[in-house]
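Reminder to self: keep the SMILES exactly as supplied, no canonicalising. Ligand is pyridoxal-5'-phosphate.
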Amino acid sequence: MAVIDEFVKSHPKSRELHERALNHFAAKGVTHVGRIWDPFGPYMTHAQGSRIWDVDGHEYIEFRNGHGALILGHGHPAVVKAIHDQAIKGTLYSASHELEIEWADLIKSMVPTAERVEFFACGQEANMMGIRLARAFTGRTRILKFEENFHGWADQLVAPRAPGAVNAEIKVIPMRDLRILEEELATGRYAIVLTEGGGAHMAGQVPWEPDFIRAVGPLARKYGTVWLLDEVVTGFRDGPAGWGGFMRLEPDLTTFGKSVAGGMPAGVLTGRADIMGMLAPKPPPESWISHSGTWNAMPIVCAAGIAACKLLKDGSVQKQVNEMGACLRQTGNRALQESGYNWRLYGRSIIHTYFGALDFEVDDAGNPPTRDIKKMLAGSEEKHKLGLYLLHHGIHTHQGRMLILSVAHTKDDIEKTVDALVKAIRDAVADDAIGGLPA
Ligand SMILES: Cc1ncc(COP(=O)(O)O)c(C=O)c1O
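Structure tokens returned for the bound complex:
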């Protein structure tokens, strides 16, 4: 474990902070499960563009990008200016203001299915309201969701029997079996069916089969179930109309988060006026849903969201980020292939790592080198270890599982990343931390 020992030795301040944090935060000293590293991760001090720096003075090429929120990179000048200018004018009015209308106008101009817009503090809140609306609208209670699809940690959003969750009304079905989907919907008991944009885990570690996802809307409609497309990650990453627009889907409800607010905390629910009309106060009291929320449409978040959406509206940012993703995928896979390692990269603007048997090479669209879902999800321990080796080589990834791109990444960043990737695998194989060569 030579490299891990070196990592520990060269990150003394991070180690000290990690030891302090263990006294406060129950989840191995971190404040988000996705921030756990073994033995510990770097503690960051500042970030700009495609770079991030830690307390021990190390610089990393940044591929976590705010859990996917920062498609514009760290500290985009237009977003920083909007936040700064609004901070001076007031962060929270707890009253109506013009910025919320301007942000909603922009979102509606980008998303063809957005007849109405509602703002929340985060993505999962928007999903929870989607469920509540669907239940009130249909008069049904059951929730249908798909394996591996993530929508948040609340009771209604996690798998049945998750510790502490009361969620007997949820059924989870496989991602690729239309017969099971139709059988369930045909029971006429489901208020809502939820799907992640792109596929399961951050825009498609397990991508949807296009024919399957295109069948969800018509089937849901046939059986009177509301379809919610969760674009919290994909929203405005794949194009100005989201992944749904890119795939020409027509969900009843769509949720956004992350990129939609330029890196500030927010969730957005858009969709059909008749369903969202359940939020309009009318007698009797039990005929409508009351939506409060201290942070709804707070001016400083709206200002950042407007700045971000203006930049995302014409699609040029997404085009550039997707091209950079293709560049990372192609040059990375060429180098991995030449080195003989059974690792591959796939995906679009969020690149997923793959470790295992290669059924075929990654294609131009960035599909994984297998159709087997278990294989796509395998190797998380090896990926985590690779993530630490990548840190040692100056690359900050999502635990070695994902490299999330932003418009700030350059060709030079990509070349350095590919070089570091091959070196990190070489070192990890030499240390016996991971396997590396095909059987
Ligand atoms: C697809 C998806 N939906 C919903 C959420 C929850 O969003 P938030 O963390 O803003 O509540 C996430 C978070 O990563 C997500 O990936």
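Points to follow up:
The chain has a mean pLDDT of 96.
Residues 67, 122-124, 127, 150-152, 196, 230, 232-233, 257, 267 surround pyridoxal-5'-phosphate (CB under 6 Å).
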